[in-house]
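From: lab user (bench 3)
To: helpdesk
Subject: output format question, protein + cobalt (II) ion

Hello, I'm new to running complex predictions and I'm not sure whether the block I got back is the full result or only part of it. Here's what I submitted:
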Amino acid sequence: MLDRLNHVALAVPDLDAAARRYRETLGAKVGAPQPLPEHGVTVVFVELGNTKVELLEPLGENSPIAAFLAKNPKGGMHHVCYEVADIVAARDQLLGQGARILGDGEPKIGAHGRPVLFVHPGDMFGTLTELEEV
Ligand code: CO
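Helpdesk reply: Thanks, we reran it on our side. This is the complete output you should expect:
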């Protein structure tokens, strides 16, 4: 069911500082900040040879990463994202095994314009896990 690692998402308190560290100190290919108001985050993509890192900063009042940063004020790993060929089949397999899907359980269009779902971290051994149909 799982294919490639699509990205690792890191919540950061200062997106500009984080982007500079990846670009200037680490010499990575770092994109421009993209505000995604419907997701409550501003995101910067760090392009690596085999995957991506997404730097996430809260955007707006009800950002889904605000509580995470309140608990982890220096930032930290927020979620991992794996690619799947059929997101509805993947969801049904997880639900059939007792795992919980966040929200209403229906795929939403994610930051890359493709359908995504999040699996409850309590059912993934403590790690929030995103699935993206590719
Ligand atoms: Co993600």
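A quick orientation on your result: The CA atoms of residues 61 and 132 lie 26 Å apart. Let us know if anything else is unclear.
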